[in-house]
Amino acid sequence: MSDLDTGETPLAHQPFYVTTDPDRQVARILGCILVSFAVFAIWPEIDLRVSLAFHDPTTGFAIEGNPMTETLRLAIWNVAILLCMAAAFGTAIGLAGKVLVLPTRAWGLILALYILGPGLMVEMLTKPLWGRARPAQVADFGGSLPFSPPNELVEVCTRNCSFVSGEVSGATVTAMALMLLHFHLKHRLGKSMSTVLLMVAWGLPLVVALQRVAAGRHFLSDTVFAVLFTLLLAWALSVLLQSWARHLPGARRTEAAVQANR
Fold this sequence. Notes:
By secondary structure, the protein is an all-alpha fold. It has one domain. The protein contains eight helices and two strands. It has a two-stranded antiparallel ribbon. The N and C termini lie close together (11 Å).
């Protein structure tokens, strides 16, 4: 049975791109975004205090330029690149009529999220629109630029700005890709490997966010909204993808055949 047939499959056992109540899920994410904006607007000092915990006036930010954390950061970034390439290949194979590990719509969703999330949404929309300076650039931490809270659109920064974090957005997409792999391969994975994969998926955005804040590259709010914006984009794309897949000729029969042959 296709996992598109949501009437037959309990919601708890469906991947995130298939849901019987997408409006409620989107409303929850929008609610979290609004509450987060309110919190950082009322208490903008949260960003400064969190960054201050990782900053020393004489030596700068705790792990800025640290070889070990930079190696870890680049390794995670390379994994994201490999998954994006795999998603492009899986989507192309799927459109040619074959299935490679994941259903075509799963690969398509992952590919779209990498392109539209850390690519379009972050680099071409939020960073230029908010114009927010990075922690290491603001006067509170030895820089020359003024601090601005996330609820304000400013023109302090002209390029490669702070809000939101592209790497945290990318780590969030990578986490969702790993969760999709876990969902579709859990019958092949051992219990220990399954647990490890889930732990890595859940921990990845947190690890990247911590690294970016501790290195003075992003404020806490940059990382929080990177996750929330990416989740909102994921749910929006998943709803569109689910609707599109349901209208494809023979989509249910094809998917059912694929599931039966696994």
